[in-house]
């Protein structure tokens, strides 16, 4: 059965965004510093404790929010979206915009777009200057074929960190790719 033009566009846009996201994130360390140091992979149901460097149960009382966030974000960037959601959902600070952003990202990657949008909006309600949430929200808008809303997020990012920051460059590139895909369809 042939694909409709809209369905084909969404598939092409999604593939482009996934490959762009993979190049930007990779399997690097998560956390506030994003040092690029590889993270030790733990079995499902366990999290890397940043203090001890050991894998412990994801529900362990010894884990702090930073360890859960760091490992959950790494899981999300590594394509282990379901596991990322499990770990990030255990963070006690339910208003942490970094956690909300990666919950949104993981849900978006699982094609749960409305859930992802909700998490991005929560992240921005907690911190309107969180440019990574704005970048991911803009990418989601492109997947949903709402480029005007994506460009609005791009303008907001530029106001906060200029046109040289990574989030601006990534979203600008995604918008350009989206526009090229539309031109090829015409």
UniProtKB/TrEMBL annotation:
Designated name of the protein: Tetratricopeptide repeat protein
Q: Name the lineage.
A: Bacteria, Pseudomonadati, Pseudomonadota, Alphaproteobacteria, Hyphomicrobiales
Give the signal peptide range.
1-24
Task: Spell out the coiled coil positions from the record.
Answer: none
Task: Note the Pfam families from the entry.
Answer: TPR_16
Regions that span the bilayer: none
**TPR-type repeats, residues:** 97-130
Q: Which InterPro entries match?
A: TPR-like_helical_dom_sf (IPR011990), TPR_rpt (IPR019734)
Q: Which domain of life is it from?
A: Bacteria
Q: Which UniProt keywords apply?
A: Signal, TPR repeat
């Amino acid at each position: 059965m042939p694909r409709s033009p809209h369905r084909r566009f969404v598939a092409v846009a999604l593939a482009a965004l996934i490959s762009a996201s993979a190049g930007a994130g990779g399997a690097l360390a998560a956390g506030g510093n994003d040092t690029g140091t590889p993270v030790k992979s733990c079995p499902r149901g366990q999290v890397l404790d940043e203090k001890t460097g050991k894998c412990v149960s994801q529900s362990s009382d010894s884990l702090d929010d930073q360890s859960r966030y760091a490992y959950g974000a790494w899981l999300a960037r590594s394509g282990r979206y379901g596991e990322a959601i499990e770990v990030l959902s255990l963070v006690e600070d339910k208003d942490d915009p970094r956690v909300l952003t990666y919950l949104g990202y993981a849900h978006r990657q699982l094609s749960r777009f409305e859930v992802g949008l909700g998490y991005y909006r929560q992240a921005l309600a907690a911190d309107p200057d969180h440019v990574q949430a704005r970048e991911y929200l803009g990418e989601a808008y492109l997947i949903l074929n709402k480029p005007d809303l994506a460009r609005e997020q791009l303008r907001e990012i530029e106001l906060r960190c200029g046109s040289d920051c990574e989030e601006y460059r990534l979203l600008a590139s995604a918008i350009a790719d989206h526009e090229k895909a539309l031109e090829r369809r015409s």
